[in-house]
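Milestone M4 deliverable, item 7.
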Amino acid sequence: MSEPKEKDRGNDKKPDESGTADLIRELGMLSSGNQFRSDFQYLNIIGCVEGHTVLTPENKTTKYEHLIPEMIAVEENPEIKGLLLLLNTVGGDVEAGLALAELVAGISKPTVSLVIGGGHSIGIPLAVSADYSFVAKSATMTLHPIRTSGTVITAEPTFEYMKKTQDRVVDFIVEHSKADRTVIDEKMNCTTNMANDVGTLLFGPEAVEIGLINEVGSLHQALKKLRELSEKQEKEIDRKCKK
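Output delivered:
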């Protein structure tokens, strides 16, 4: 029998390898089903959250339209019992970030977030959107006012719109964390913390201290908490079914 041709040897792949490669390239994630069985879904938000405008190729981005169906699957798939959200983001599109944060907050199954590296700007609403949040000791989080780019019409309605947009972000943070609105506003508008900028850079323990994040921890603690919340929910469901 003749040897396989050289060009055919590269096609000797398992049926799911091509799909796995696409998943890594597009979403930066592996489907847990391809490697091991897990009760939880793991999603990561890295780089810049890309919204309605496509960013330049040198930007590392997370496209929000890619994550929306993944979050819906967490809610819809009976085999998935919870979500772990991993964050290392510089922020990004406000509308897209809030959309993702609202979806996480609207999931009925247990959700846990973990900030590693950084969870800046619109990454803060994403971090607090989960049922319970962790931040690595070495991670940082930046609170600052809403920015805008491009042509700005210097009319009163423009500034009013920006103020209302910032209020939407602050409202979400206050509603989904233990942080006080006065403290958030103060940190956002601080002029002495960061060089050449307005806002405050918080390290992991500081974010916990002001009530923004629940606890300092890393992967082990985040997964442990997610399992605890999942088991608690299952027991509550069983109790209601027995009534």
